[in-house]
Amino acid sequence: MSLLQHTGPSTFYTELAELPLPVSADFVGNDVARVTYSVRDHERNITRSLTKTFPRGITSDNQTTSHDSSEVKAFTTSPSKSRQAILREVANGTSTKRFVEIWAGAQVEASLDVTKYHDAFHTDDFTSSLSFSPSETSLLYTAEANINSDDNASDDPYPKFRFTPHFGEPSRARKRSTIFLFRWTRSTDFTRAAKQDMLLVALSLAQPAQVPVLFGQATFATEDVIYASGHEHTKDGRLLGVKWCFNRPMGIWEIKLPESVTVQGTPFGTKILCNALKLTPSERSCRSPRVLYDDGHTPTKLFWFSNPVGGPHASCVSLESRDLATGTNKVLVDTVMEPTSENDFPGLYPNYNMPSSPFLRRGNRTYIVLHSLWRSRATILFIDTESGAISDETKMRDGEPLYSWDFHTTDNKTCFICSRSTPTTPSEVLLGYFDPRDNLNWKVLDKPTISFATENALRDLTASIIPIGARPPTETLIIQSKKASTRPGPKPICITIPHGGPHASSTTSFYPATAALALEGYTLSLPNYTGSMGFGEKYIQKLLGHCGTMDVQDVVESVNELVRLGISEHGRQVVQGGSHGGFLAAHLIGQYPTLFNAAVMRNPVTSVGELTASDIPDWAYAELGLQFTPDSLMMPATFQKMFEASPIAHVDNVRAPVLLLIGEDDLRVVPAQGLRFYHALKGRERRVEMLWFKGETHPLDGVEAARVSWEAGRDWFKKLGQNPAD
User: Fold this and answer.
1) Which residues face 181 on adjacent strands?
2) By the number of CB atoms within 10 A of the CB, which of 184, 279, 521, 625 ranks highest?
């Protein structure tokens, strides 16, 4: 009989996972904020979105809620707040039709069926664009170019089959990111623009770069000047996977539209040639351009994020700027190697992108607002656009909840929208604003609605951050039940959950899956080991060349420290992790075979030398301190070093029962990694089970896949967590 037996659904998990999660916000009119939420629907097995609008000065009881159509792929509000742009995809039998729409209030000002002129819209963080021109008569967006857009011969079969690299996880479909310009002439009688009064063109370089460049993240500065990010092919013809990677060859470009682009007489879908200039050096990976305007609506400065090309896939971010009058570039916030006692700022660790509206006025100063990791929590930073001076506006104070913050948007004046949560309290949305004396004030706009039973259960949970003194700056986030942890008898089973990356971080944000496990009575430990973000660049670099030893030892010491503190006890330990967290889980049960009673691993790295099919083949080299170049080959000596640093090298020692959760379409850690570990354990007559999720990628974040994965982990630990490994 299978070791894994389903014990039924969890009402806690289902309710918490279905809570609306605020993901973005904008200001859509005078003092009206709009917040967009992501909502998981287990009954329909889909993720939906909804929006809520909050008029200033009106209580949250008067908010307006609307459930967004699945047809809407992206939308944005114009600078004047008088228009909205919508990218819409409509199912049409077995095909899909695509439309670009411009709305002025409740009226469609312009709409064009763009189905024939390109493939799917790009709405991801890495290539998407959606920007109005200052006159609000042009729109930039990004879409997938048609396969045969460069070929006039319709009977030529080769374009359909010619190899084209893709952007990697989570889809092979994104290959030909192209910026499109949609322009329309407003009707004088306020009717919809006629087709002859609209223009759609694809932007292309007049002078091709030395390597192919694919553009995205485009934003208008003036009517004819655009700034965009350019993703570069490598010398060996790759597009290295970009998701979760801050180190890719890409730069900020200035693109100038030709004067000849007119609405009349230009066929839809025409490719126009633009003069372009790369503004950033080739050794820096630069993205997310944002334009600052003065009070006269003249663009004055350009800002962007920057990291080194190559090396660790995520690292301390630099904030850079360009004076648009002088053409001078400047590093506004530089890399911080290590915090000091005089200045404990660890450096910038924001999301991949800068928010679309990051600028805030306070008195006579202008700031960029970001949330950034600061050790094990995310906090709100104000960064002076002139001096680069940084202030932590949500600094932790004694006795306060362990809030982690997410920044969403500003009104480009004096108001901004954030959300915050703790490990035991779901996200609430807040408005930040300045009073007449420029003091920062907060107003809660929205709180989640939770059942009485779940709210009561969450009150029993407590969270804390425990420093691991023997291995600084390692610390671990603890979530536990007050009742279960103080009950006489054995301590609750402790689940150690190392994060992936390895250059990521576990934060004090609310995560339904971890909260639901704590509500099952487990103690959770989420260690931020050496290499985690938010502690200084020194500790990211320190892990390189020591993966599989230093990070493993940090996690082991976190277990020992919790035992010493009486939070948990030996013999009641289990481990769970995904990606690099799965790599650590597999190492831990191999190197320390009696430490953990059971293990659950999601898409784990088990054999580093066999990651050549990954969308990030350079990862294995960088993390083991090896040089990766376009002509790198897997030589026997290199493979030997990678094998010795891999969990598979310790598979003979594994005693704990293992549950593997594998996404069939994972492009990051290919399914063969988990499959090989499964067969290696089976061949050694170890206890192992595997769930195989068709259509799922690296995170296993589909609604059903996430729920089943959570239930499987719960059931695995419920059955096997109390039995020490043989």
Assistant:
1) 140, 201
2) 184
Question: CA 531, CA 503: separation in Å to the nearest integer?
Answer: 5
Residue 442: its pLDDT value, please? 96
Contact 184, 102 (CB under 8 A): yes
Q: Is 342 helix (H, G, I), strand (E, B) or coil?
A: coil
Least confident of 257-261, 353-357, 495-499, 649-653: 257-261
62 pLDDT band, cuts 50/70/90, is low
How far is CA 175 from each of CA 73, 142, 518, rounded to the nearest angstrom? 19, 12, 42
- Residue 679 contacts by C-beta under 8 Å, 6 or more apart in sequence? none
Cis ω before 699 (30° cut-off from 0):
no
Q: In this structure, are residues 269 and 118 in contact, taking their beta carbons and an 8 Å threshold? A: yes
525 by DSSP, 3-state: which?
strand
The residues, ordered by sequence, that sit 6+ positions from 456 with a Cβ below 8 Å of its Cβ are: none
**Residue 434 dihedral angles phi and psi, to the nearest 5°:** -105, 140
Q: Output the CA torsion sign for 485, 475, 597, 673.
A: positive
- What does the pLDDT read at residue 714? 98
Residues 6+ apart with CB under 8 A from 155: none
Q: How far apart are the first and last CA of the chain?
A: 19
Note the pLDDT of residue 149: 52
Determine which helix (DSSP H) or strand (DSSP E) holds 15, and give its type and residue range: helix 11-17
Q: Which of 263, 289, 510, 502 is nearest to 402 (CA)?
A: 510
Return d(Cα 118, Cα 100) in angstroms, integer: 12
Distance (Å, whole) CA 558 – CA 540: 18
pLDDT at 190: 75
What the block records as the tokens of 6 is 């389903």
Per-residue pLDDT band at 153 (split at 50, 70, 90): low
Contact 26, 713 (CB under 8 A): no
H-helix or E-strand spanning residue 19 = none
Report the pLDDT value the prediction gives residue 251, as an integer from 0 to 100. Answer: 98
What is the structure's pLDDT at 65? 77
Q: Which pLDDT belongs to residue 397?
A: 87
DSSP 187: P
| Distance of alpha carbon 170 from alpha carbon 187, whole angstroms | 42
Q: What pLDDT was estimated at residue 260?
A: 73
Pairwise CA distance, residues 545 & 553, whole Å: 14
Q: What is the mean pLDDT of the chain?
A: 94
Which residues on adjacent β-strands are paired with residue 601?
577, 660
Residue pair 227/254 in contact by the 8 Å Cβ criterion = yes
In whole angstroms, what is the distance from residue 671 CA to residue 675 CA? 6
Count CB neighbours of 638 within 10 A: 16
Q: What are phi and psi of 101, to 5 degrees?
A: -125, 140
In this structure, what is the dihedral angle of CA atoms 79, 81, 83, 88, given to the nearest 10 degrees?
90
